[in-house]
Every structure is written in C-alpha cells, then in structure tokens.
Amino acid sequence: MQIIRDVRKFVSIPGARTLLTMLFLYGIGTGILAPMNAVYLNESVRLSKDQIVAVFAVALFCNMAITITVGWISDRLKNKKKLPVIAAILCIIGLFIYMNASDFRSALIGMTITVAPSGLIMGQLFGMARNHFARSAGEIVEMAQIWLRATYSIGFFTGLLLGANIFLIATFKGVLWGNLAGYVSLVVLLLVYKETTGEPGVKQAVRGEPFSIVMLVALLMLACADAIRGLYLQLVVLKLFGKPEIMSYIWSAQAVFELFFMTLGGYLAARYGSKKIILLGGCFALATYLTYTSSTSLPVFFAVQPMYSFFVSILYGVAMGYVQRMFLSRTGFGASLYVFISQTASLIGYFLPLFIQGITPKIFFIPSSLVALSLLIIGMVLYRERRLNRRNSIVIEQL
Questions:
Q1: How far apart are CA 4 and CA 262, in angstroms?
Q2: Disulfide-capable partner of 345 in 6, 213, 223, 323 (CB 3.0 to 4.6 Å)?
Q3: What is the pLDDT of residues 192-250, one digit of tens each?
Q4: Does any domain span residue 241?
Q5: Do 160 and 31 form a contact (C-beta atoms < 8 A)?
Q6: CB atoms < 10 A from the CB of 115, how many?
Q7: Measured in Å, how far apart are the chain's first and last C-alpha atoms?
Q8: What is the DSSP string of 331-378?
Q9: What is the pTM of this model?
C-alpha cells in the first residue's frame, strides 16, 4: 500500500525521528498547561473574566507582531534553527514569572514574555521541516508535514492526560513546571538537530496553490471558531461540572483519532482537493458547536469529540499545507503566515464572547455563526472554480 511505503520512507530519512521526538515532547509540554491556563488565572491568581481576556489578548498581540515580522525575514537566513532556540529560552524565562504571578500585572508580564516569542517556534519548526523533506523526499513532503503535525497533537493530548493527573497531585504549580519541561526538551533537541540548508535535492511532486485572500479569510473564521472553543470550553465545562481536570479528559479523547484523521485528511486532500476537505471538516465543527449550545450532558461532550477531532485534523493539517503551498519558494514566511492567521483568530476569538454575559453554553452560537459563514465562502469559491473549469473544458473542446 502507498501509505506503508510513504511511512517507511518518512522514518528512514535522517533527522525525521529527531523532528518527531521534538514535536512530541513540545506537544506534551504545551498540552499539560493548555486546558488549565484560564482556570489557573481564575482560580489561583483570582483574575476576572475581563482580566483573563486582557492577559491573553496582549500576549497574543505581541506574539502576532513578532511572528509575522520574523517570518517575513526568516527566508533570508541560512539557518533558521537559532530563531526557535532563542524563542524557547525566552518562553522559559517568562514561565518563571508567570508561575509566581500574584496579580494582574505580574500575570500579564509573565504571559507576554512566555507567549510573545512562542509563535516563532511552530512556524519555524515547520519551515525547517519543509526544507528538510523537500531536499530528501519531495514526493512525500506534504504527508511528512501532516505526520509531524499529528505527532505534535499526539504529544499535546498526552500532555492533557498528564496535566490532569499532575494537577490532582501537585496542583497548578506542577502543571506549570510540566509546561516548562516541554520548552527545555525543545531547546535540547533543537541543539542536537542538524538543520538542512540549500536547494531541494530532489524535484518536488507538490504543486503550488494560487494566492487567495478569500480563502485565507475563510480559514481565519474557522480558526477563530476553534480559538473560542479553546479558551471558553474549559470555562464552560468548569461552570457546568465543577472540576478543572474534566477538560483535560475531554480534549484527550481526541488523541485516539488525531493521527488517523490527519493521515486520512492528507490523502483525501491529495485526491479531491484541499478546499473540499476543509469544507467537510467545517461541517463537523458546526455540528459540534451546535451540540455544545444545546446539551449539558457530560457523556455528550465526550461523544462529539471524534467529530471535532476530524475538524481539527483538517484545520491544522490540510489547511496548514494549503497555506504553505501558496508560498512554496518562501517556506519560512508560509509557515509563519499560517501561525499568524491562527493567532489573529485567537485574538478575535477572545473578545467576541464578551458580548455574551457570563460563562454559558450560549457562547458557542458565535463559533457556529463563524463556521457557517466560512462554509458559505468556501462553497462559493468551489462553485466558481467548477464553473471556470467547465468553461475552460468547453473552450478546449471547441479548439
């Protein structure tokens, strides 16, 4: 089977296993803290809803500015590895401040120093990875990117389970130390990893995508919906069920499906086109958000996770590759642009639910509307492409 051949080729490439380990451990470190972040600010630092949003928003705004600026110039650098190394070291410094925060000001400073440079990490890691596999195995570069992203997700969800249990044993302090360990592991592995530079050694079998601002807006809306879920679902779950660790278990339910769905999505996108698969993933997201608004049953929250896992797999696997292919000759910028889109979506997503009073499942009417509008845009793009292709076919037949 093709998938078996591709996987064997992937793991046989020098440096591939180091990249996999790097993303897995970084994912664990990130996942340990992710579902507890807002809860930590609320329960331990005693910040209000507006203050929590302000902390996340300021940190993200600084992150966005750094990410897109450095992403623009990173392709001029012969070695990109130094960027994520410096970023991870700054994140470690910020975490020391954040874990000792006692009020709004110290939490804001700690979070900003931690989050602001972190956008360089994912963008530059995948920029380096695309260069690495384009040089060694251009025919599987897209699937290699997806498997690396899936490995990060597996690590992330492993971190969720660890975070929930660490919280029960060592409270929020243990969770924060676990997050710091992820950054330390990343620095160590980056120093070990030998970066690939130079032109591709083999011809890539990947075709570029035409630049489309409309599709980027549609992806922004999908990412914005996911960002709202990422921040507010943990608060809604805490409000409904009263236990912070439940959110870690809910998110970790996705891990079982993540690798399979990302791989499936990658091959489906190669066969049917990225936009059609992104459209399908958005339909699953819409169904999930509507379920959140209409149910207060914990088993139902777990039951819809496989559907949402498919959407996330498409959003962070297929969509990431789609954006990168718009800039095949500028891998650093393409990867950073996708991260920038995600960050912009998060910044917008943090503020939109403020129009709804309190922490309530009604918040998820907002991501439902965003996804519905995004699906409409993607559907219109596909319809126009179909009409254009049909018109071109008629012209060719007449000639």
A1: 15
A2: 223
A3: 888 776 554 444 455 678 888 999 999 999 999 998 887 788 778 878 877 766 766 77
A4: yes
A5: yes
A6: 23
A7: 40
A8: HHHHHHHHHHHHHHHHHHHHHGGGGS-SS-GGGGHHHHHHHHHHHHHH
A9: 0.73
| Cα torsion through 62, 64, 65, 71, rounded to 10 | 140
211 burial (CB, 10 Å; 0-12 / 13-18 / 19+) is exposed
Structure tokens at 63: 């992150």
When pLDDT is averaged across residues 31-49 and rounded to a whole number, the result is: 81
> What secondary structure, in 3-state letters, does 108-130 show?
HHHHHHHHCCCHHHHHHHHHHHH
- What is the spatial distance between Cα 204 and Cα 132, in angstroms, rounded to a whole number? 12
In a domain? residue 2: no
In a domain, 199, yes or no: yes
Closest alpha carbon to 186 in 24, 320, 13, 316: 24
Output the CA–CA distances (angstroms, integers) from residue 134 to 2, 126, 130, 200, 269, in the order listed: 19, 12, 6, 5, 19
Tokens 């609320």 belong to 42
Tokens 């592991």, residue located: 185
DSSP states of 153-174 as a string?
HHHHHHHHHHHHHHHHHHHHHH
Q: How many domains does the chain have?
A: 1
Running DSSP on this structure, what letter comes out for residue 25?
Answer: H
% of the chain exceeding 70 in pLDDT? 89
User: Which ranges constitute the DSSP H helices of the chain?
Assistant: 2-12, 16-33, 37-43, 49-74, 82-98, 104-115, 119-136, 141-192, 213-241, 245-252, 255-272, 274-294, 298-303, 305-313, 319-325, 331-351, 365-398
- Which DSSP category does 199 fall into? S
* Amino acid found at 236: V
pLDDT above 90 for 376: yes
- Specify the CATH number for the domain of residue 68: 1.20.1250.20
Region class of 103: left (phi > 0), else alpha (psi between -120 and 50), else beta: beta
Residue 7 counted as domain residue: no
Q: Are 150 and 310 in contact (CB under 8 A)?
A: no
For tokens 């410094």, the residue is 93
- Give the domain range for residue 42: 13-398
pLDDT higher for 257 or 13? 13
